[in-house]
Every structure is written in C-alpha cells, then in structure tokens.
Design a protein that fits this description.
By secondary structure, the protein is an all-alpha fold. The chain has a domain of 44 residues. It is 66% helix and 0% strand. It is built from three helices and no strands. The longest helix has 24 residues.
C-alpha cells in the first residue's frame, strides 16, 4: 500500500537538535555578556583567552614548548 501524498517529510532529528543547541548557546552568551557588561571575545581572540585561562600561558607559548 502506498503512503498518502499529503504527509509532510519530517526533519532530521539531528538537524533539529543542532538548531536548538545553537539557539541555547546564543541565549547563554547574551546572558553572560549582560552580566559581564561587555561582549565576549570572538574568534582567535577568544581562542587565545581560553588557552590562557586553561594553562596560564596561552596558545602560542604552549606550542613553542
């Protein structure tokens, strides 16, 4: 028996979860920025800041060793 033609295709569950995750991350980022009073660093600056926070030296210093 053939499927009825009036059914709509269901979105991929992984795609839906990814959308939700990105939305929640953006919401959390806005909350943190509001508490901090300034924007969080983005891109390479953020990477360097997180590396410093993790090991006290930063990414460049760690890679030289």
């Amino acid at each position: 028996m053939a499927k009825p033609s009036n059914t709509t295709p269901r979105p991929d569950p992984g795609t839906e979860a990814g959308k939700h995750l990105r939305a929640e991350a953006a919401k959390e980022e806005r909350k943190v920025e509001a508490e901090k009073g300034s924007e969080l660093k983005k891109g390479a600056d953020r990477f360097e800041e997180r590396a410093q926070s993790a090991n006290g030296e930063g990414a460049e210093q760690t890679q030289k060793e």
